[in-house]
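thread: overnight batch results

M.L. [08:02]
morning all. the overnight job finished for the chain we discussed friday. pasting input first so we're all looking at the same thing
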Amino acid sequence: MTRSNYLFTSESVSEGHPDKVCDRISDEVVDAYLGALPEARVACETLATTNRVVIAGETRGPDSITKETIADLARKAIRDIGYEQDGFHHAKVDVEVLLHPQSANIAQGVDANANKDEGAGDQGIMFGYATDETPELMPAPIYYAHKILRDLTDARKARLGDAVHLGPDAKSQVTVKYENGRPVGITQLVLSTQHIKEDLTSEEVKAIVKPFILKTLPAGWVTEETVWHVNPTGKFVIGGPDGDCGLTGRKIIVDTYGGAAPHGGGAFSGKDPTKVDRSAAYAARYLAKNVVAAGLASRAAIQLSYAIGVAKPLSIYVDLYGTGKVDEDKLEKVLFELVDLSPRAIRTRLGLNKPIYARTAAYGHFGRAPEADGGFSWERTDLVDELKKAF
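M.L. [08:03]
and the structure it wrote out:
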């Protein structure tokens, strides 16, 4: 039986976190290739440490994208994030590019009958999830953990008040109290944020961030009983890759549902959309969100599975957590008939062969508004009417 009263915690990290710097650079590479050739292939990994970035992986695309092009993209991303400290500076960082052509053995499975039955780029399982506890149909803990950091980043970049003293690197953690299965408040709030002004104490940093955080969270969710932990270890001046080595793909729970739903284990950033780790996870979210938006359930998790070189998913599984108004077996059949879940069809339906990925690298791939140029297309709810008709 599902518990009704409990605490649940999720964390987020800012765009200046070392791993997120790497995710951003890897996705800038994906965007560069897709912008030049929609059918380009990219599998890009980035490592960042003190004034050094290493970019490695496999690509297939136009020769116009050179190592110098990619190094320049990395520096521009670092500058946009806001790193100008001695140990990690966009103008001083040494960028090494070690990309090489994609394996022909991988390509042959993906490219077979490319116009008809293109196979998945790899085997794997992918999950999508949605819940009606926020208007964005996201779990409240991860949604607000993201929003705290995004709002603080916006304030830092806009140089609003004392937010000018904050640095790019930050982590948040939110513990949400649930009563009768609904989020009602926050019991614990953790924020560790880099600060440029060296002599700031934890209490002074708290005084800077608290007004922004209170404005971010729903009214009444923070009370006198809420426990704040702001920079609990004290000074946090050395941040980003200078303080901690970063790697692409290490924040898979931050990128998805904050631990509130199952995860297939695959990372997203640095991968073009032929990789079902990315595109099928987006498709699964698309399906789950539409199920909840259609009122068929309050919560929905959907699993898809694939084999390399095989076009159709091997299975589709739906779990409505006892909140469903429809039969889960029937819903699985309806979804399978309603939406072609082969890799090419997913990319076509969601318009994924576009340079729309750098923006996903921080603050979550889900719970964001669909954008006019096709960004976050998997957040659309255009299946609602068809789902309602099916039942």
